Amino acid sequence: MAGTVAAAGHALADVERHVNPLDLDADHRWTTARQLLHDTTIDTEDRLAGLLLLLYAQGLSAISQLTVDQITITDDSVHISFGHTPIRLPEPIDGLARTVVAKGPPGRPAGWRPDRGGGEHRHGS
């Protein structure tokens, strides 16, 4: 997977096809997480989704169905609900979530690009 995450728009497809995040060694997982946190050449949606996959053990199916209604934003915090209990997102992940929510209307998959339709999986070309 080295180098493939950096290809904007293909990060999730590469992870989905080649790597089970649970099989990554800790160093590789943290290296990839750092890249997703700071590499602004990767789409914000891909960065957030990759971090939810790597750091919160959320599957791609769950991530692709995530709606903006599951993300609660206040002036000083951002919470995401994967189940019944909202989880506070730390900086800078909260900033990525704010950006993604700003792109998508309520009830629609969270910023997963309106032109792609609700709930569709993203695939690399």
List keywords for this structure.
125 residues, 5 helices, mainly alpha, single chain, 3-stranded antiparallel beta sheet, 6% strand
In short:
By secondary structure, the chain is mostly helical.
Task: Outline the structure in words.
The structure is a single chain. The chain has 125 residues and is mainly alpha-helical. It has helices at 11-18, 26-38, 44-56, 60-65, 93-103, and strands at residues 71-73, 78-80, 87-88. The longest helix is centred in the N-terminal third of the chain and has 13 residues, at 26-38. It starts with 10 loop residues before the first helix and ends in a 22-residue tail after the last helix. It contains five helices and three strands; from the N terminus they run H-H-H-H-E-E-E-H. Strands 1-2-3 form a three-stranded antiparallel sheet, with helices on one face. It is 41% helix and 6% strand. The protein has one domain. Strand 1 and strand 2 (78-80) form a beta hairpin.
Helix count from the secondary structure assignment: 5
The amount of beta strand, in percent, is 5-15%
Integer-rounded radius of gyration: 14 Å
Distance between termini?
16 Å
